[in-house]
Design brief:
The complex is a heterotrimer of chains A (about 140), B (about 400) and C (about 300). With about 140 residues, chain A is an alpha+beta fold. Chain A contains four helices and five strands, in the order αβαββαββα. Chain A is elongated, with a radius of gyration of 23 Å. The model of chain A has no long low-confidence stretch (mean pLDDT about 85). Chain C is an all-alpha fold and about 300 residues long. In chain C, α3 runs antiparallel to α11. The two termini of chain C are about 35 Å apart. Chains in contact: A-B, A-C, B-C. At the A-B interface, α3 of A face α2, α5, α6 and α7 of B.
C-alpha cells in the first residue's frame, strides 16, 4: 500500500518533452502500408469490373469508352471510399494501389472528391459527352 | 428493479460525460445510496443485420468490421471463420497465425484503452493520459502492419491481406518490450495506489455463483473466478498450437477486473512473441467461391469483452440469408443492474465501465412474442409513423 | 511593502478588483499548465483563461425552468464579490493588506466560505437532479474541511499572538519559517486548501463523470463566468494565505511570486497523483485524520509555548 506511486513518473514528465505531436507543424512520415487515396493505373486494366463489384461502399465506377481497345475511365468517389483496400486485392492485374502520401483528404467543397482517372484524351472526350448530354437535357 | 417512485432519479444518459456512447440509465437514489437501476439501450441501432442481407459476402466483411471500432478485427474474424466453414475451405496456417497476431494486438489495444477510460471515470485523469499515451505504441504497430489504426481490414474471405516481414517482426518485438514494461508499471499503480484501491476494492463484488446465474462473460466473469474463455474451450484459428492461459481472479470486485485485464495483456504479449518466433510458412490466401453453399453455421470467438457469437445462414447465393450477431457486452448489463443496488452514486460510472461496455456492438434488434400475437411485418412507412407518434 | 491607497481603489482596481481578477486568470493558467506538464501534455496557451472568460461572457445565458430568478442572477455576483472582498485583508502581491484590523483572519475566511455557500445555494436553487446532488456534496465538503483548515491557520495565529493577518505576515517574515516549526499544520493547511478549492482528489462536488458539473450544471454564459472568476480569485487568495503564514511571510512582490508559485507546483503535483475520493471518503478522511492532526499540532504549539516560557 503506497500513496502516490505515480509521483516519480509525474516529476520526470515535468522535464520531458510533451508526448503531443505538433501536427501540422511537425509531420511524421506515414508508414509504407498506410491506406490513403486510391490510385489507378489504366495500362493493364481489362475492364473486368471486379473492383466495382467488390467495393463495399460503391466508390468505384468504371466508365467504358471503348471496350475492344481497353479505353476506360475510372470515376473514384473519394467521399464514399472506406479505404479498406479490397479493390487492390480483387484486381488480378495490379492496377490499383492505395497511396501512402495522399491522405490529407479534407476539403471544403464536394468537387475534390469526384476523382477521374484515365488517359487525358479519354477524360476530355468523356467530359465533352457529359456536357453535351447536360445541354440536351436542359 | 422495484423502486419507490418518490425517491430521486438520477439519469445517466443518453447524453452524459460518463458515457462515451448513448444509453439511458436511471438510478433511483436515496441520498447517495442507489436503490434501483434500469437501463434502456438501442440508441445506436443502425440496422446492420438488415444491411448485411443486401450486400455480397465480400462486402459484408467490411460491414461487420464496422459494428465496433475497438473490436473490429474479431468481428471480421468471426464472420470469415463462419463463411469459410460454410464454403468448406481450409485456410493456410500462416494466414491464421497472422489473424491471431492481429487479434491479440487488438486485445492489448482494447485493454489499454479500457484502463484509461475506467481510470477517467474514477477521476484518475493522470492514469488515463499515461495509458493512452502508451497505447499510441500499439496503434503505431497496427498501422505499420495493416495501414490503419482502427478498422485494420486484415481479413479476406480465405486468408489475410498482408504479410509480416522480418523487419516488421523486429519492430513488433521492440514495441512489445515497451508495452510490457509500461503495463508492469500500471499493474503496480492499480494494485498499490491507496486512493485507487479505495475506489475499486469491494465495489460491485460478484461471487462465482452469481456471475454464472447472471450470465456474465469475458473478463467480468473471469474476475469472479468463472474460468470460461472461448480460446481455450473451443479453440479457433491456431489457438490449439499456441494456447492461452485463462486469467482468473477470486475477488470478483472492480479491482479484480482491473487485474484480470492487465494480466490478459501480459498473456497477449507472450502469445504474440511466440507466434512471431514460430510463424508457420506458407501462402496467405486460398480461393473462396463467390456463391457460398447453402447452410447454417455458428461461429464463436473471444473478443476483448467476452464471447462473440455469429450465426450465418446462406441460401446458396451471392448474398447471405441472415447474419445474426450477439456481442458480449449485451450479457454483462444484468450484472451492472443487480450490483448497483446498495452502492453509492459515485461508484456508478466505474461500475458501468468495469464491464467494458461497447454500446455500438450492443444494439441488435430482438423480437418479443407477446401472448397469442403472431409475427407482424411492418412496412417502412408504418415504422416511421410509429416512431413519430412515440416521441410526440 | 506598504501601499497607501484608499480602500475603494484597492477594492476595485489595485491590488484587488481588476488586478486581482487578472492575477486569478494567470494563476488558473499556471495551474492548468503545470497539471498538463505533469501529465506529459502541452497544456493551454497563456491567453486561454482570458479567452474562456470572454467567450462565456459573450454567450447566451439560459435560465432553467423552476429557479428563483432573483437568486439565479444574484448568486454568481455575490460569489465574486465575496471573493474580492476577502482580497482586501490578505497581503496580495506582496503589498500590505489594504484594510487591516484585529480579527480580520476570521473575516477573510468567512468571505471565502461565503463563496462556497453561494455555490451550494446555486445548486440547490434549481430542480436539476445533478445540481441538487452537487449542492449536497459541496455543502458536505464545506462542513468537513472547514474545521481542520481553520485550526491549521490558527496555529500561526497563536504563534504570532494575534488574529490580524498583516501582523501574522510580519511575524512570519521575521521568525523561522513556520513550515519547519509547525510541519503538521503545514500539511493540514495545504491539503485543506485543496479541499477548499475543490481541486482533485477532493473534486467530488463537481465530478464530471458522475454529476456533469455539480452545482454549476445549469449555469451558462455570464453566471458561469462569474463563478469561475470567483474560484480563480479564491485560488490566489488561498495560496497567498497559506504561503504568507507558513512560507515565511510575503514582504514584497518578488517573494509573493516565488512562494505562491512554489506552493502551486506542489498542489499541481498532488492534483495529478491521486484518484478522486468519494464524498464519504472525503468526510471520513477529514473528520478522522484532518481534525486529529490539526488538534495534535495545536497541542504541540501550546505545549511548546508554555514549556518555552518555563525555561
Amino acid at each position: 500500500m503506497s500513496v502516490g506511486p505515480m509521483i516519480s513518473d509525474l516529476l520526470r514528465s515535468l522535464f520531458k518533452k510533451p508526448a503531443t505531436e505538433l501536427y501540422p507543424f511537425v509531420k511524421t512520415p506515414a508508414p509504407i502500408r498506410l491506406r490513403g487515396k486510391l490510385i489507378w493505373d489504366p495500362t493493364n486494366c481489362t475492364g473486368c469490373q471486379l473492383c466495382v463489384k467488390d467495393c463495399p461502399a460503391n466508390a468505384i465506377e468504371l466508365i467504358v469508352i471503348d471496350k475492344v481497345n481497353k479505353r476506360f475511365i475510372m470515376n473514384y468517389h473519394a467521399d464514399h471510399c472506406i479505404y479498406c483496400s479490397q479493390c487492390v486485392v480483387s484486381c488480378r492485374f495490379n492496377c490499383l494501389r492505395l497511396s501512402n502520401e495522399d491522405w490529407e483528404l479534407a476539403a471544403a467543397q464536394k468537387q475534390p472528391f469526384a476523382v477521374y482517372y484515365g488517359k487525358e484524351e479519354d477524360i476530355a472526350h468523356f467530359m465533352e459527352q457529359a456536357a453535351k448530354t447536360d445541354a440536351e437535357r436542359a | 428493479m422495484a423502486a419507490d417512485t418518490n425517491k430521486f432519479v438520477i439519469p445517466i444518459g443518453p447524453q452524459h460525460p460518463a458515457l462515451k456512447e448513448p444509453a439511458n440509465f436511471e438510478f433511483w437514489v436515496d441520498g447517495e445510496i442507489v436503490t434501483g437501476a434500469s437501463v434502456r439501450l438501442g440508441y445506436v441501432h443502425r440496422g446492420i443485420e438488415k444491411g448485411a442481407e443486401a450486400r455480397t459476402w465480400t462486402q459484408n466483411l467490411y460491414l461487420m468490421e464496422r459494428i465496433c471500432g475497438i473490436c473490429s478485427h474479431v468481428h471480421a474474424t468471426a464472420y470469415t471463420l463462419g463463411v469459410e466453414k460454410l464454403a468448406g475451405v481450409e485456410v493456410p496456417p500462416r494466414a491464421n497465425a497472422i489473424r491471431q497476431l492481429m487479434a491479440e494486438l487488438e486485445r492489448i489495444h482494447s485493454h489499454m484503452l479500457w484502463l484509461g477510460v475506467a481510470a477517467h471515470e474514477g477521476g484518475f485523469d493522470t492514469l488515463f493520459m499515461y495509458s493512452w499515451r502508451d497505447r499510441e505504441t500499439v496503434m503505431d504497430l497496427l498501422e505499420k502492419i495493416s495501414g490503419n489504426k482502427v478498422h485494420y481490414s486484415a481479413n479476406l474471405l480465405g486468408g489475410v491481406k498482408f504479410d509480416i516481414t522480418p523487419e516488421l517482426a523486429a519492430e513488433i518485438h521492440k514495441g512489445l518490450d515497451f508495452l510490457e514494461e509500461r503495463n508492469h508499471f500500471y499493474m503496480k499503480v492499480v494494485t498499490t495506489d491507496e486512493t485507487f484501491i479505495g475506489r475499486t476494492q469491494d465495489i460491485g463484488t460478484m461471487t462465482t455463483e452469481k456471475a454464472e446465474f447472471l450470465g456474465a462473460i469475458g473478463p467480468t466473469a473471469r474476475a469472479s473466478g468463472v474460468a470460461r474463455d472461448i480460446r481455450v474451450d473451443a479453440p479457433y484459428l491456431i489457438y490449439d498450437q499456441f494456447p492461452v492461459k485463462v486469467m482468473t481472479h477470486t475477488s470478483g470486485d472492480l479491482h479484480g477486473r482491473f487485474i484480470v485485464r492487465i494480466n490478459e495483456t501480459f498473456e497477449s504479449i507472450r502469445i504474440i512473441r511466440e507466434i512471431l518466433d514460430h510463424m508457420p510458412q506458407g501462402e496467405l490466401t486460398t480461393r473462396v467461391p463467390r456463391r457460398i453453399p447453402a447452410g447454417e453455421v455458428v461461429s464463436r470467438v473471444e473478443a476483448p469483452r467476452g464471447e462473440l457469437l455469429y450465426f450465418i445462414a446462406s441460401n446458396g447465393s451471392e448474398k447471405p440469408e441472415r447474419v445474426k450477431v450477439r456481442t458480449p457486452s449485451l450479457c454483462n448489463w444484468s450484472t451492472v443492474l443487480s450490483l448497483a443496488i446498495g452502492l453509492k452514486l459515485a461508484d456508478m460510472p466505474m461500475l458501468l465501465s468495469g464491464i467494458d461496455p461497447c454500446f455500438s456492438c450492443n444494439d441488435r434488434s430482438i423480437s418479443l412474442k407477446r401472448g397469442q400475437q403472431g409475427p407482424q411485418v411492418w412496412s417502412w412507412e408504418k415504422l416511421r409513423q410509429y416512431g413519430i407518434e412515440y416521441y410526440r | 511593502m506598504n501601499l497607501s491607497l484608499p480602500p475603494i481603489l484597492a477594492l476595485l482596481v489595485f491590488p484587488g478588483g481588476l488586478f486581482l481578477i487578472a492575477g486569478g486568470l494567470i494563476y488558473q493558467w499556471a495551474d492548468r499548465k503545470l497539471v498538463a506538464r505533469f501529465q506529459n501534455r502541452i497544456g493551454p496557451r497563456f491567453i486561454q483563461p482570458l479567452a474562456d472568460t470572454l467567450k462565456l461572457l459573450a454567450k447566451e445565458e439560459i435560465t432553467p425552468v423552476g429557479v428563483h430568478k432573483g437568486l439565479f442572477f444574484a448568486l454568481p455576483a455575490i460569489a465574486l464579490a465575496a471573493a474580492l472582498t476577502a482580497g482586501l485583508y490578505v497581503p496580495l502581491f506582496g503589498f500590505q493588506p489594504a484594510s487591516s484590523f484585529r480579527g480580520d483572519l476570521i473575516i477573510a475566511l468567512y468571505a471565502l466560505s461565503v463563496l462556497t455557500l453561494t455555490m451550494g445555494l446555486a445548486g440547490a436553487n434549481t430542480i436539476s437532479r445533478f445540481s441538487l446532488v452537487g449542492a449536497t456534496r459541496t455543502l458536505t465538503q464545506l462542513f468537513s474541511y472547514e474545521a481542520p483548515f481553520l485550526l491549521s491557520l490558527l496555529g500561526p495565529a497563536i504563534a504570532a499572538g494575534t488574529w490580524q493577518i498583516s501582523e501574522i505576515n510580519t511575524y512570519a517574515g521575521q521568525n523561522l519559517w513556520l513550515m519547519i516549526a509547525q510541519p503538521i499544520g503545514f500539511v493540514v493547511a495545504m491539503i485543506g486548501l485543496m479541499g477548499k478549492l475543490e481541486l482533485p482528489p477532493f473534486d467530488a462536488p463537481e465530478a464530471e463523470t458522475e454529476i456533469v458539473a455539480g452545482a454549476m450544471t445549469e449555469y451558462s454564459g455570464r453566471g458561469f463566468a462569474l463563478f469561475r472568476l470567483g474560484k480563480d480569485v479564491e485560488l490566489i487568495i488561498g495560496l497567498t494565505l497559506v504561503s504568507a503564514f507558513y512560507l515565511g511571510g510575503l514582504a514584497n512582490p518578488l517573494e509573493f511570486v516565488f512562494k505562491t508559485l512554489a506552493l502551486l507546483l506542489v498542489l499541481a503535483l498532488l492534483q495529478t497523483a491521486f484518484a478522486r475520493l468519494r464524498i464519504d471518503q472525503t468526510v471520513g478522511l477529514w473528520w478522522r485524520a484532518g481534525a486529529l492532526l490539526a488538534v495534535v499540532q495545536l497541542i504541540a504549539i501550546v505545549l511548546g509555548r508554555n514549556l518555552g516560557s518555563i525555561f
